[in-house]
Specification:
This protein is α/β, with parallel strands linked by helices. The protein has one domain: Rossmann fold. The protein has 9 helices and 7 strands; from the N terminus they run βαβαβαβαβααβαααβ. The protein has a 7-stranded parallel beta sheet with strand order 3-2-1-4-5-6-7, sandwiched between helices. α1 links the parallel β1 and β2. α1 packs across α9, α3 runs parallel beside α4 and α4 packs parallel to α6. The radius of gyration is 17 Å and the shape is globular. The chain starts with 6 loop residues before the first strand and ends in a 6-residue tail after the last strand. The protein binds NADP nicotinamide-adenine-dinucleotide phosphate. The site of NADP nicotinamide-adenine-dinucleotide phosphate has 32 residues, from α1, β2, α4 and α7.
């Protein structure tokens, strides 16, 4: 129970990587706030956490609470942060996982597609960090983990907006790491490669086969692979790591 007594927030915890992160943190004993843009969106995540061995207890796995939050909407983020701080009194782990794609080749990508992705993936993370930074600084401790992507490092044809948002996250995270190191707060990025979730389920068999050939470990990532990396960065074992991008991609971009 390495996270007993810790309070975590995972944005976009209704499914996929966010659900895996929330579940792993709860398994470690953290109480986890899980967000979705939809009322009831996190029902399956809450059920998974309640079903953990010795779940929902102060001594066993942590309990989970669902909150509605659209990270693209500043008022929604502020209301969510207020609810977390009123109910829990603090936040130890802020995991910015919510993200979207609006893929398309550059010549066909319009500004609305660019704005939508930047607004959710990058500005949304800015807003949540802003909403909790003061409280974390006052507590003189905390962990920020932002879920990026390998394409933020490599770029990707058809994902100019998404790659720009994920590259931006790295700059944002390094800046936070520098500004808040003196307050005992670490900020890092976990950059997944190809992970089996709803986000990648839309890709054609042809694209999937081509991607698999580029992965030295010969399999797609599981959401739990990413959750393990996030848990590590939240843990005491990562106390001396900040401003870093931890790539979790089966060796794809080495
Ligand atoms: N899957 C991959 O291969 C892969 C690779 C690299 C990086 N990533 C990153 O990993 C993260 C999770 O990806 P995933 O594959 O698990 O995606 P997913 O299955 O599509 O889930 C996305 C999550 O983000 C939430 N979300 C979307 N827009 C939001 C908004 N405006 N405000 C708040 N929450 C919002 C969704 O919540 P609701 O729909 O319930 O509101 C959902 O919980 C993303 O940041 C993604 O870019 C994924």
């Amino acid at each position: 129970m390495q996270f007993a007594g810790k309070i975590a927030l995972v944005t976009g915890a209704s499914r996929g990587i966010g659900r895996a992160i929330a579940t792993q943190l709860a398994r470690g004993g953290a109480d986890v706030f899980c967000t979705s843009t939809k009322e009831g969106g996190c029902a399956e995540t809450l059920a998974a956490i309640a079903a953990l061995p010795a779940g929902s207890g102060p001594a066993g796995s942590g309990k989970a609470t669902a909150l509605v939050c659209d990270v693209a909407d500043a008022a929604s983020v502020e209301a969510m942060a207020k609810a977390v701080l009123e109910r829990a009194g603090k936040l130890d782990f802020l995991v910015n996982n919510a993200g979207i794609t609006r893929d398309g080749l550059f010549l066909r990508m319009d500004a609305a597609d660019f704005d939508a992705v930047l607004t959710t993936n990058l500005r949304g993370t800015f807003l949540t960090c802003k909403a909790f930074a003061r409280s974390m600084a006052k507590a003189r401790g905390g962990r920020i983990v932002n879920v990026g992507s390998v394409v933020g490092l490599t770029g990707n044809a058809g994902q100019a907006n998404y790659a720009a948002s994920k590259a931006g996250l790295i700059g944002l995270t390094k800046s936070l790491a520098q500004e808040f190191a003196g307050r005992g707060i670490t900020a890092n990025v976990v950059a997944p490669g190809f992970v089996e979730t709803d986000m990648t389920a839309v890709l054609t068999a042809e694209v999937r086969d081509a991607m698999l050939k580029q992965i030295p470990l010969s399999r797609f990532g599981a959401a739990d692979d990413i959750a393990h990396a996030v848990s590590f960065l939240c843990s005491e074992h990562a106390a001396y790591i900040t401003g870093q991008t931890l790539v979790v991609d089966g060796g794809m971009t080495m």
